[in-house]
Specification:
alpha+beta, Beta Polymerase, domain 2, globular
Length: 184
């Protein structure tokens, strides 16, 4: 994949039609990550919109690394930064511990979120991805929302991301309710 097919200048919101090559980028990066942290990382997943076939996305690959305990987060981040990734610190409940990769200064190509597998955030990453992959109606609603937000906030990634939060929360709460009722 050509470098200009993935990546977006920091702060800019621009959506691209889904590209099958995004999964290939994930697979390549996952191998690099495994070689750096394989003995600590329990699971490495392609998450976010680039992981959903048919969904437009910012051309930045999101990867979630699941670890056993919070004590594993900083050693994983350290190994990745030693390998050339950029440490962006703890993003709290909205992003886990974030490590990134730039194609050029200020041109982001990867977001790597390091979280405990027992953290609800891990469940959110995988569940939302799987819902979007499996439910065309929700995927289309989300695509419309993303398009509207991208038009409204073309140079404000924070507002774009914040604008998606309620949709994601609502979608995940419906899934959680469904799971709870299945257990009754």
């Amino acid at each position: 994949m050509k470098q200009n097919d993935t990546g977006l200048k920091r702060g800019i919101v621009q959506l691209a039609g889904h590209r099958a090559e995004w999964h290939a980028v994930f697979l390549t990066e996952a191998e690099k990550i495994k070689s750096c942290v394989g003995d600590i990382a329990l699971q490495i997943e392609h998450v976010g919109s680039t992981s959903v076939p048919g969904l437009a996305a910012k051309p930045i690959i999101d990867i979630a690394i699941g670890v056993e305990s919070s004590g594993d987060i900083l050693p994983v981040a350290k190994r990745l930064t030693d390998a050339g990734y950029i440490d962006r610190g703890d993003q709290g409940k909205d992003g886990g511990y974030l490590v990134v990769k730039d194609a050029a200064p200020g041109v982001r190509i990867l977001h790597i979120h390091i979280v405990e597998k027992k953290d609800i955030q891990w469940w959110h990453y995988l569940s939302f991805r799987d819902i979007l992959r499996g439910n065309k109606k929700i995927r289309q609603e989300y695509a419309r929302l993303k398009k509207d937000l991208a038009q409204k906030f073309p140079e404000d990634r924070y507002s774009y991301t914040s604008g998606k939060a309620e949709f994601i929360r609502h979608t995940l709460s419906g899934t959680q309710k469904s799971l709870n009722s299945d257990q009754d």
